[in-house]
Amino acid sequence: MRLSLRRKHRSKAGGAGKRLRRSVLGFCLAGLAAALLAIPAGAQQRRPSAPQISWYIFDFPPVFILSGPDTGTGNGDVWLSYFISVLPQFRHRIVTASISRMMTDIAREQGACTTSVIPNAERAKFMAFSRHFWRVQPTRVIYPEGLAPSINLYRAADGQIDVAGLARDETLQGGYIDRRSYTPAIDAAIALLKQRRGGWAVTGSEGAVEMLALGRVDYTFGYPFELRYLLHRRGNGMPLASAGAAGDPEVVEAHIACSKEAVGEALLAALDDVLDAAPPPPSTLQASYRWTRPEELSLVLSRGPGQQ
Question: pTM of the prediction?
């Protein structure tokens, strides 16, 4: 589950919109959310006592797209726009920040929220989470579709990839983002690649895509939707396939998260009520699934415990 160039501390809102139903609407990285609608002029002056929510976003195409011709069209942009439109009882502002600053501000400020966080014990100390969640795929093995026969040599019966075995294969070159932590299984495979000097270290997702496009690596690791979008932006139509790493969960649950205090918890309660009530507009789902292949979509859309 996007807007104007380098939008910082910029608010938007929209019409009332339809209400969401209680069902987990999937997508990822990570992790979902939405593009901003403009708050009518003077709206905040008309509601001076309304609680203020600061929505934190960061530059992460195609979740949040903050520059270029696709500005504002990311799945995170679209979902956030929808959330804002159905919660007029709050004043909303957008804050563009790094992930580290986002976490710091949620820990110390009132009404600081973000759209997709995977809960853990440490985050639960300072974050409150929505009852509703989205299924998101963790980072995976990503490779050109034409190399599937070579990658499938390491595929288990459940469809997951033995990434340690893949990393030991000297006929294949792997790519990875230097100093980035993926999942425990993938991090261990990258350590093997480094030991045998069988991989390429790059500085970011764009570099990983470039290595794939040039044929310098046979596979890499990351979020499939992210690399497909970046490949599309390069004008390269090479189809990319993906598979999870053995030992990793196929999906994780990402929740809307806010500061753990009265304003943040009020926002989450109101949003859960909206999510209980009615389905979102088709545009939100279309934005979420644009860069997801059918076999991946079947995972993130599968029903889970407590889901209706």
Answer: 0.77
